Amino acid sequence: MTNPLATKLSHYVDLSDDDVGALDWLCADVRPFKAGKHLIKEGDRPEVVFLLIDGWAMRYKVLRDGRRHIMAYLVPGDLCDVQVFLLKAVDHNIALLGDASVAIIPQAKMSALLDERPRLTRALGWSSLVEDSVLREWLVNMGQRDAHDRIAHLLAEMWLRLRTVGLASDHSIKLPLTQADLADTLGLTPVHINRMLQQMRKAGLIEIGGGALHIPDVQRLMDVSDFDANYLHLERRAD
Amino acid sequence: MTNPLATKLSHYVDLSDDDVGALDWLCADVRPFKAGKHLIKEGDRPEVVFLLIDGWAMRYKVLRDGRRHIMAYLVPGDLCDVQVFLLKAVDHNIALLGDASVAIIPQAKMSALLDERPRLTRALGWSSLVEDSVLREWLVNMGQRDAHDRIAHLLAEMWLRLRTVGLASDHSIKLPLTQADLADTLGLTPVHINRMLQQMRKAGLIEIGGGALHIPDVQRLMDVSDFDANYLHLERRAD
DNA sequence: CGATAGTTTGATATCCTTCAAAACCTGTGG
DNA sequence: CCACAGGTTTTGAAGGATATCAAACTATCG
Fold it and tell me: Residue A238: pLDDT band by 50, 70, 90 thresholds?
């Protein structure tokens, strides 16, 4: 199974071969993009849906005084704002964090899929509920945890999410984030991120650097950061 | 127009009389509940959808050590987790903040509405995109703003949201929140909330207390808190 | 090999928390 | 109608987590 969206959705529902075929059909138009390319800009009214095939993207906002806040990371298998064409104008940006491959899906194709494949529609609905749930957990993370635990929680989440699309090898993932990116994600200073990462390194919790993250003992990282994987809803609903 | 959901949706699309009638039909079963009553509990798999008619509710999570974080406030016209029956189990709680009236909508009734009234379906989709957008703005609020601005931003938002359902009289709204609630919403201490509120009172930004909030100059409150109303998507899409 | 982005270090300032107690409400039962 | 109980708001003093500022160091890439 090469399509990362299919890999992800198969965690939520049983996909038939036809379903997988339909997803491949959806991703007929895959293009390479350079690092920093914007898929969506504030004020746009997008006409197509994007699906990340390879690489990372971030969803972010810029405040009036120039500060930036990153509100989500998109990894392979993640869709950009499936429903967003309902709105007059989007209120955020989505940019690639490195060179990436992106499938471009015309609105009509997306609608056709949703009309004809109820099982996929359900899986996509699930997937978007999980996105909401992740957003809520980020809010809790910012509101209730100190810098150390906040970072640990985020890293554990990214590791788990990448594993569900088959992108965690042994205990490592690619992590194309600078410490400034982490700072703008967690509401902290790059300086403080740096100091906390050093502390976590010394404690043997993580090895980080050079665009990669190694977590020797994921359970331990989850324990220290009060991580409860429920919010990722990886357990399939029984019915 | 008495149905607060109809009032809210009419900001997004033009509703026909039939649409409004359908919404009233949806809310046939309205019941009174006592303060503190839980509409949804973590681990539930709800069979019905709730619609707040009168009163406030909060969506919150409890961490392992007992800390609580409030992730959203629901006000009249807001639905509880329309799609949530897709999930195996919800990962949060929704409780009433005071005595309230709640419409109880069976799953089947909701589905029927969505099948038969594409315009309402579109409006509900819009409404749920706005909810997501609000959640993202809360994340930015926590990540980038200090205590004072964070509080100001939240109060301005609640004032605007209540106004769109016709519940802001002159410059006042009901605000059934304790300072501890605000603290658990904004990731601050009740003590610090208290001191900031005093400061805002002295500055003439707000009058708050006794379950009510008065904002003499909403524009000023929005200015100091870097409030950009775009994220509420109150501008109707032109098409 | 120089330029540029990213990481690391140190010293100091500040916002916010913590802890503890007093004051203030609001509803309830006697 | 008073007294009391529980929750909420307010106040003070002191400590801690994180920010700020400035600069050195390191990696990366054309």
Answer: low
Cβ(B187)–Cβ(A186) below 8 Å: no
B71 pLDDT exceeds 70? yes
- C-alpha B216: how far from its chain's center? 22
Residue B144 CB in 7 A reach of strand D: no
What was the pLDDT predicted at B86?
81
Q: Is the CB of A194 under 7 A from strand C?
A: yes
**What would the DSSP string read from start to end of B74-107?**
E-TT-EE-TTGGGSSS-SSEEEESSSEEEEEEEH
Interface probe with A: pick from B81, B119, B140, most Cβ of A within 10 Å: B140
Output Rg (C-alpha) for chain B, integer angstroms: 18
Residues 6+ apart with CB under 8 A from A145: A153, A225, A226
Provide the mean pLDDT of chain A: 94
- How many CB atoms are located within 10 Å of the residue B194 CB? 15
8 A C-beta contact, residue B58 and residue B72: yes
Protein-to-nucleotide distance from the CA of B208 to the C1' of C26, whole angstroms: 18
How long a stretch of residues is chain A?
Answer: 239
CB A107 within 8 A of CB A85: yes
* Nearest-angstrom CA–CA distance, A13 and A3: 15
> What's the pLDDT score for residue B84?
80
Whether A228 has a pLDDT exceeding 70, the answer reads yes
Residues A93 and A41: beta-carbon distance below 8 Å: yes
Neighbouring C-beta atoms of residue B226, cutoff 10 Å: 17
Q: Tokens representing A1?
A: 């199974």
Q: How far is CA A186 from CA A192, A211, B112, in A?
A: 11, 18, 42
Contact between chains at B138 and A133 (C-beta distance less than 8 A):
no
Q: Strand C positions with any atom < 7 Å from protein CB?
A: 5-11, 15-20, 26
Asked whether B133 and B233 are in contact (CB, 8 A), the reply is yes
